[in-house]
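Changelog entry: the 2-oxoisovalerate dehydrogenase subunit alpha record was regenerated in this release. Current contents:
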Amino acid sequence: MRRLAAGTKPCVSVISNSIRSAGSLSQRPNSNFVSFPGALKSSFTSSLKFETPDSYTALQTYRVVDQDGQIVDPSFSPDISDEAVIKLYKDMLFISIMDLIMFDAQRQGRLSFYMVSAGEEAVSVGSSSVLDREDVVFCQYREQGFFKERGFTTEQFMSQLFANKKDSGRGRNMPVHYGSKELNMHTVSSPLATQLPQASGAAYALKLQKLQDPSSKPRVAVVFFGEGAASEGDFHAALNIAATRSCPIVFICRNNGFAISTPTLDQYRGDGIASRGIGYGIDTIRVDGNDIWAVREATKKARAMALEGGGKPVLIEAMTYRVSHHSTSDDSFAYRARVEVEDWKRRDNPLTRLRKWMEAKGCWDETKEKDARTDLRKEILKAFGEAEREKKPPIATMFEDIYEELTEDLKDQKEQLRTMLEKYPEEYDVGSFDGGIDSLKAK
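Regenerated structure tokens:
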């Protein structure tokens, strides 16, 4: 038998324990319930009855503050100062203002693509505010608020959107595909739901890391996705991996009512996404995604639960409403009534709900609101202008970051490109790239 590599003993221990626990199950004589790995403690019955969805009431939705900003959970008391609350509100406000500016910029042809997160700001900002900065995060594409709350700067947002030389991704990704190694946030990828099994794998790695070094800091993986992504096979694989391997991970689903143009009623027949978590043996809660306090309380508790007993998965389904179009490539009024959207904007959204709570508490008013909006808009537009004028990354970077050193064929391709650009200088806008053609010269 091949010897295992050094440092893999904890992994063997985890697997061995699961084998022993499964092998210890047996059906005792005259037992009144099933004792089988797939259905523990299932009592026998002589009544032939199929379970139906309408036999169960829908899972409840936890909320702390109602749409009028009134506290409905008598046990709740804010765990942060008024100044900290204001900071969270401004983070949400920042995202809502940036979304409007960048959406218009795309319509003006100054940006190739954009996705807004209107109506969903509380889920990202609220969850980020109670997680540890070293927790590993996998976002989808409506978590701008998470990036903002965790420390992503206005310049970083704009540099990524305009793919300039200051973009940490070196201009290789579509707009809104943010990422930050320093903030422990993996870069957003376009394929739907691929981040889910990746996050489960990361959580398993964190579990093994803790087993190998008990003194290391306990961390969890956190992954965001929409209810549409939950229709992908990756969703089911990810939940099953996390459940069977007892991975310290928090799944956060934004159920915003639509998967591009497909409403939830056409996506599934079960009780939302939360019911699926229970089906996989995962501790689950459904929260009001428009209530930042409910999101904070649920995420804070979920993280603590995920670290219990060496690790386990937890699922949060946050009920929101996608006020915006799916993206700048979508016209949502082709499949839903404009009055429906306007009603949600007016009746209930995360910003107005938190603002009402703050005003009732006396830490916010109309003057502060006007000043904040003015200041944030100026900040965003300033960074917008600077990023738009900044040069693109050097042309030579297209050959880098795959191999530690350029291979001979890449060196040859690089030289061919330089020769072509020098031969036809007026056919290409090489001046917009940092260093121009000179960046292609051999070093």
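Confidence is low (pLDDT under 50) at residues 1-20.
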